[in-house]
Amino acid sequence: MRIIAHLDMDAFFAAVEERDHPELKGLPIVVGADPAQGKGRGVVSTANYAARKYGIHSALPISTAWRLSEKARAQGQPGAVFLGVNYRRYGEVSERIMALVRRHSPLVEEAGIDEVYFDLSFAGSFEQAAEICRRLKKEIQEQEKLTASVGIGPNKLVAKIASDFRKPDGLTKVTPEEAENFLEPLPVRKIPGIGPKTEKRLAREGIRLVRDLKKFSPEELQIRFGKWGPELYERIRGRHEAPLQEEYEPKSVGEQETFGEDTRDLNFIFDRLWGMCGSVWNRMQAEDFKTFRTVVVTVRFADFDTHSRSHTLAAATGSPARLRFTAMKLLMPFLDRRENPRRKLLRLIGVRLEKLER
Q1: Are residues 260 and 297 in the same domain?
Q2: Which of 57, 63, 171, 299 could disulfide-pair with 334, CB 3.0 to 4.6 Å?
């Protein structure tokens, strides 16, 4: 019998900040870009549950988060505390949590800095697996003073959905016999692979819940979704056989920056590009990678039109100068008539490295 657990830290970045700064306890906390008194141009990375009551959530424009905070303040509630992102600190805490998880399972897949899958098939029953997860949650609480939510299921898909079912500090167990009924009443967006655009398209047809999708045959889903259709047919029934991957390898390392003002100032743009290349290079080395092969540059214009261009080198390289040169070549067309004939101002640029090798 296969038993998979998924652990997801609750509002991780914000929770670490609240723990490290007791004076913030109980206050709404937003971690992300500088709101600049409502004129900030980045996004929210994480909001704690107090801030979420104001409608603030991850990926929300930071300016919108500021307005929601000010609205709450005007109603007599505490305004949100806005903090920058401290990746180094969050990484240190994550390493200690992952070490605790590895004490309870022989097979672990780190899915990100704040989430992890682990195999509990050796436990022999879902009841015993749940007991192991209770002990693990207690250990995290005692050692790190943080809460985690855990889902237990017959596969990664069900376990991940279950971990989100009773947040924060939840524990949800879904057996193979319960999986299909567990998924039926959920919004289709809960199924990994169904994004916001697909969700809206389905809603226009009256398809909002998983049970609505189950009316279609594999062939009908293939017509709607292409080759992914038959796989979706299995997913919405709780069937998913993807294996755990013991080694977590970042697929890429990247950063992006939203400028304080839209611009086409070449000196400013290239100054930020060089700084970003240096930062990405340092992060790549911090992850113990030695070389890369692909460089990706992203540009967002003032009208939010967004483009990415990439170049894969003939051979892997460990040269920061090669990174800067390749990024510059990819960016240049967006500064002249090749990719920017209307001479639009730039709002954001980003640099990402792919095909990393240790």
Answers
A1: yes
A2: 299
Cis (ω within 30 of 0) for the bond into 168?
yes
What's the pLDDT at 233? 93
User: Which residue of the set 115, 131, 142, 231 is catalytic?
Assistant: 115
- Decide if pLDDT at 249 tops 90: no
Angstrom distance (rounded) from CA 317 to CA 310 = 15
Local confidence band at 88 (pLDDT 50, 70, 90 cut-offs): confident
Question: Are the C-beta atoms of 323 and 281 separated by less than 8 Å?
Answer: yes
What is the distance between the alpha carbons of residues 156 and 146, in angstroms, rounded to a whole number? 23
Number of folded domains that form the chain: 4
299, two tokens:
């540009």
pLDDT above 70: percentage of residues in the chain: 99
Could you give the 3-state DSSP secondary structure of residue 285? helix
Task: Return the pLDDT at 260.
Answer: 82
- Residue 64: give the domain boundaries: 14-83
pLDDT number for residue 42: 81
Q: Is 115 part of the annotated catalytic residue set?
A: yes
pLDDT digits (tens, 9 = 90+) for 252-268: 888 888 888 899 999 99
Contact 134, 5 (CB under 8 A): no
**CATH number of the domain to which 256 belongs:** 3.30.1490.100
Domain assignment present for 244: no
**Mean pLDDT of all residues in 204-217:** 93
273 and 205 together in one domain: no
Q: Which helix (H) or strand (E) is 184 found in, with range?
A: none
Specify if 241 maps to a domain: no
- Please indicate, yes or no, whether residues 176 and 228 belong to a single structural domain of this protein: no
Using CA atoms, how far residue 281 sits from 288, 317, 318, 320, 348, in Å, is: 11, 12, 9, 7, 19
Q: Is the pLDDT of residue 248 over 60?
A: no
Both tokens assigned to 357: 């090798």
